[in-house]
Amino acid sequence: MTLDGAPECVLEPDPHRLVSRVHCTAEHADGGWTIADNASDNGTVLRRGGELTRVVGTTALRHGDAVLIIGDITPDGEPRY
Known about the structure:
The protein has 81 residues and is mostly beta strands. It has strands at residues 24-29, 32-37, 45-48, 51-54, 58-60, 66-68, 72-73, 79-80.
């Protein structure tokens, strides 16, 4: 977020309705970042050290973590982040 509270990341329209406007929340506090999934249908995934883990509740982020949100689904039903 910018200093005025505006989001720095804006998503394009999602015709598949995979991501909502309140899908997840990233917050900075006490010198670190956290990510929280807001009960989204498709979930928020954290890639840490090559492993994928679904975010449950609020999770502290570490250097090198990647927050993944489904952006598409292949014809075979596999998620694309």
